[in-house]
Amino acid sequence: MSNTALKLISKYSDSIQYKFIKVLNDMPQETISDSTSSELGSYPQAWEAAKTLVAELGKIPVTFTTPVRTLMYDHKNDQILSPAGHFLTTRLLRSPTLKAMFYYASLTFFGDRIANSAYLSSSDLVRLYKPKDCAGVLATIYLVRRLLSKGVQNLPDWEDTLQNITKRSEAGGHIGLAIPSLGQATGIITGSFRNLAIALFGINNPDKYNEYRSYLNSANLPYHLDYELQNWECTHLDIVGNLLQQFGFGISQAHAYILGLGRRPPKSPNEDLEGYQYALTSEWIECLILSGKEPDRKHLGQYYPTEKDKYRLLYEINSLNETNSKHNWLSKSKGDINPHATPQLYQEFLMELEQSAALESFYQENLPADVLDDLSPDDIKELSKFEKDKM
Fold first, then answer.
1. What sign has the CA pseudo-torsion 130, 134, 135, 137?
2. pLDDT per residue over 242-274, tens digit each?
3. Which candidate, 150, 182, 148, places its Cα nearest to that of 165?
4. Is residue 235 within 8 Å of 40, Cβ to Cβ?
5. What is d(CA 56, CA 369) in angstroms, rounded to the nearest whole number?
6. Which are the contacts of 166, defined by CB distance < 8 A and separation ≥ 6?
7. Between the CA of residue 281 and those of 95, 162, 241, what are the distances in Å?
8. Sign of the C-alpha dihedral computed for residues 44, 45, 47 and 48 taken in this order
9. What whole-number distance in Å separates Cα of residue 195 and Cα of residue 240?
10. Cα angle at 268 between 228 and 273, to 5 degrees?
């Protein structure tokens, strides 16, 4: 490790940041210098600048971070949904707006399994997903709603941006279902977080953002990392890395995203497995959206769909390219859950009661120890309160 790196670690002793720097410095030196550090500019200044921008959205509430962290714990524990992960997620879906968005996401990805159901509970919806995939959907929903609460809809290109985000997140989700070694969460996050992070530049400085968009349109580019560094002292990759950490996906996912979607992504899983998964997912998304065809490359067997899954994937992408999103899950709100449009879900509203007396003991008994250890008594109390719809 260089003397400069040691000085940076000494200067920035915040525990999360220290762990992130240590992960980067423990990796092969060519990976650090050739990819991650080039995205972060004068690291860790760019990371700090991104953290400041993310702070404009406000702290992600423990009622979101705890479910995500628990679902990620379940993901690492044989991908089996635990009682705590199930309960925390279904409890979130008592928010009508969140339930509406989650339901229409489920209809998008699992329509053949739920479209004709006479009754659907929140539990039915949650169990459609693997734990990490469920976390990816929840995080994307939260980020969209939080940006809206900060006025992102006032940006002149927001409607087109949201349509683009929806289209790419759906493509990514279908890719992840067709190629399980990539995963649905990786697909949804790859397809959505980049442009959601860029939109945060607009909330921070609308005039500068509009100039950036004009520059991208004139140059026919989706983004420009150096332009972002010059104007915001960080890139959208730094913002996504911060967000993934704050949501509770972990340092490794933050690093993998930055590496996989950076200037020099891994070319094989041997270089960096999770970074390669993000890189390959992004390649599939762009090829399918732009041409309707799979990437023109030599495919590894575990990263290629079966014939049946490939046929279904191409069908979904062709439909998406022809008509855009069928259900527009990221645009839904509580008004989209009603007796006429969603009779399967409306039944659950009639049965839901405000019951929170036994929640504290449930958390003490069922949360993973490392999650529980990080929760203060006040956090436990906040988790145990019944939350009204604040989305």
1. positive
2. 999 999 999 999 999 999 999 999 999 999 999
3. 148
4. yes
5. 31
6. 324, 325, 328, 329, 330, 331
7. 31, 20, 17
8. positive
9. 10
10. 75
DSSP for 53-84, written as a single string: HHHTT-PPPHHHHHHHHHHHHHHHTTT---HH
Distance between CA 40 and CA 20 in Å, rounded? 13
Give the position of tokens 């645009």: 331
Instruction: Say what the pTM is.
Output: 0.83
Both tokens assigned to 249: 């996906």
Instruction: State how far the Cα of 1 lies from the Cα of 26, in Å rounded to an integer.
Output: 8
- In this predicted model, what pLDDT tens digit does every residue of 168-202 receive, in sequence order? 999 999 999 999 999 999 999 999 999 999 999 99
Locate 21 and state its tokens.
């720097």
With beta carbons less than 8 A apart as the criterion, state whether 24 and 5 touch: no
Question: Could you tell me the domains of the chain?
Answer: 28-352 (1.10.3210.10)
Please give the structure tokens belonging to residue 313: 């994937």
